[in-house]
Design brief:
Strand content: under 5%
Number of strands: 0
Bound molecules: zinc ion
Distance between the termini: 24 Å
Oligomer: single chain
Radius of gyration: 23 Å
């Protein structure tokens, strides 16, 4: 499995993991503190789980993001904006909705802010076409990458990729090289 594939699998697993940790932490919090207000408990548990999700998501992807100062500052600004939105909507919901009906809405508000944050950072962290061109230029024309896992096959004396085990014809590898070196936007 390539590193990218494992990052994608881990990202998918983060969503069921979030449901499990939310249920466990919610259950534990209600058991351990019978005197705490239900509304406060739900707010605390959902904000803590949303923060843990964001940190896990960032830890999973930070190694492949090109952290330019602009991208770093925009990530902080976006995270602050989403956190403020979550807190503001929680406050508004508590004020506007009857306390026994408000709990599902509190969870929805935090989940919506979390989803918005995730969509935003995926866009922010995505490689720009200029960065892609530079990366390709840095890789060099004389480099041959595995068409499946992108392992650098230069210097190998056979056509089997040592990383993923797939075997290719020379033509397939050349096709991949042509495709990789074509200007951005053509693929
Ligand atoms: Zn490979």
């Amino acid at each position: 499995m390539s590193r990218l594939a494992s990052r994608i699998v881990l990202t998918i697993l983060l969503f069921p993991a979030l449901i499990v940790t939310s249920s466990i932490s919610g259950g534990l919090a209600s058991l351990l503190s019978p005197f705490i207000d239900d509304v406060e408990l739900v707010i605390g548990v959902s904000l803590a789980n949303a923060t843990a999700f964001a940190v896990a998501f960032w830890l999973n992807w930070r190694g492949v993001v090109a952290w330019t100062p602009r991208r770093t500052s925009r990530t902080w600004i976006w995270s602050g904006a989403c956190a403020s939105l979550a807190v503001a909507s929680l406050a508004a919901l508590v004020l506007l909705i009857d306390r026994w009906n408000v709990i599902p809405w509190l969870i929805i508000a935090v989940a919506a802010a979390g989803l918005l944050w995730t969509i935003g950072v995926v866009r922010l962290w995505q490689e720009s076409s200029k960065e892609r061109s530079l990366r390709i230029a840095a890789t060099g024309v004389n480099t041959a990458l595995c068409p499946v896992c992108r392992y650098d096959l230069s210097g190998l004396t056979n056509l089997r990729c040592p990383e993923c085990g797939n075997e290719f014809t020379l033509g397939r590898i050349q096709d991949e090289q042509r495709r990789r070196l074509s200007p951005p936007g053509l693929d």
